[in-house]
């Protein structure tokens, strides 16, 4: 009797028949293993959820304590049915993990979203030897070569110095990107208060509770318009489309994203100061990671598949696209 594959792409997401669970399913299922807390990977409504303690906390913050009927934190390698699963740090956001599934003499590592650039806001990526590596392809084009974050922060602080009468409003996603940005600004020597939109408050407070120093953070609603001259304000990108942004003096609109390398995207968003800061892996680090792991096969998901498929072909690596749907490109 032929055994089913270890993992199978299904409309709900990647399914493991031997353990009867899904990884990052896009619709409610009986049992879900979750790589991280971004809403395109971590959805509410599952019967049971296994994830890192920090990811479970983040899901509770975002969806309420009753986001699932049952939750479990893996304590080392865990047996589920006919397979063994283990969680390994991914370097993406706080609590993010790669999920290794072992069975039938094969190990598949589902990386979720991941990054190789160090940050104090989450644990670094752990290379895990495997037979099959499932990788994201958000920035899987040779044009995407992210500059050092320190260089982008230097551009930001130079702009703040050059325009002391203006507020600098930076769009950053609430989980991961905002905290990564704040930590980078602090590392560059900015000790003044950083003002944050209310939508960021609970997740920033959680990072601080986890021992991550974000410095003096203040609500962006405190003070008069003139008081924000020369200040840095961080908010979710959606806030800039509302009248909320009008309460700041002649704001410089900035946006922190890997997509800011594409000038057309910056223009479409009305971004005056694009900051190429990403919590996803860029092309050089993506190909270097695959070379380092040297898996027998590469599975490619949620992103640009063609260039990476071609690179794998040129480097004589087996590769296939999974065509999973429901994931966003560096978004929530």
TrEMBL record:
It comes from the Bacteria. Keywords: Exonuclease, Hydrolase, Ligase, Nuclease. The keyword Nuclease applies. The lineage of its organism: Bacteria, Pseudomonadati, Pseudomonadota, Alphaproteobacteria, Rhodobacterales. This is Ligase-associated DNA damage response exonuclease. One of its GO terms (molecular function) is exonuclease activity. Its EC number is 3.1.-.-. InterPro entries: MBL, RibonucZ/Hydroxyglut_hydro, Xnuc_lig_assoc.
């Amino acid at each position: 009797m032929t055994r089913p594959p270890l993992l199978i792409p299904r409309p709900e997401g990647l399914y493991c028949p031997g353990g009867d669970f899904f990884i990052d399913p896009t619709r409610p299922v009986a049992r879900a293993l979750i790589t991280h807390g971004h809403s395109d990977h971590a959805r509410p409504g599952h019967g049971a959820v296994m994830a890192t303690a920090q990811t479970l906390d983040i899901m509770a913050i975002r969806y309420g304590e009753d986001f699932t009927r049952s939750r479990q934190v893996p304590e080392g390698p865990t047996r589920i049915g006919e397979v063994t699963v283990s969680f390994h740090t991914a370097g993406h956001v706080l609590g993010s993990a790669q999920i290794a599934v072992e069975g039938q003499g094969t190990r598949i590592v589902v990386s979720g979203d991941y990054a190789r650039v160090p940050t104090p806001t989450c644990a670094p990526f752990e290379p895990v030897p495997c037979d099959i590596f499932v990788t994201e392809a958000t920035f899987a084009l040779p044009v995407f070569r992210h500059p050092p974050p320190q260089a982008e922060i230097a551009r930001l602080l130079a702009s703040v110095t050059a325009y002391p009468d203006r507020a600098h409003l930076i769009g950053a996603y609430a989980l991961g990107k905002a905290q990564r940005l704040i930590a980078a600004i602090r590392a560059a020597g900015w000790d003044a208060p950083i003002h944050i939109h209310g939508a960021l408050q609970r997740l920033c407070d959680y990072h601080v509770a986890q021992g991550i120093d974000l410095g003096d953070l203040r609500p962006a609603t405190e003070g008069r318009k003139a008081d924000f001259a020369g200040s840095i304000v961080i908010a979710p990108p959606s806030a800039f489309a509302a009248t909320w942004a009008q309460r700041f003096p002649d704001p410089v609109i900035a946006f922190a994203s890997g997509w800011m390398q594409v000038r057309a995207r910056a223009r479409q968003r009305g971004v005056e100061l694009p900051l190429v800061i990403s919590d996803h892996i860029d092309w050089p680090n993506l190909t270097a990671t695959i070379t380092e792991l040297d898996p027998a096969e590469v599975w490619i998901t949620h992103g640009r598949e063609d260039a990476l498929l071609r690179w794998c072909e040129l480097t004589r690596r087996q590769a296939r696209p999974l065509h999973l749907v429901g994931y966003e490109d560096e978004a929530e």
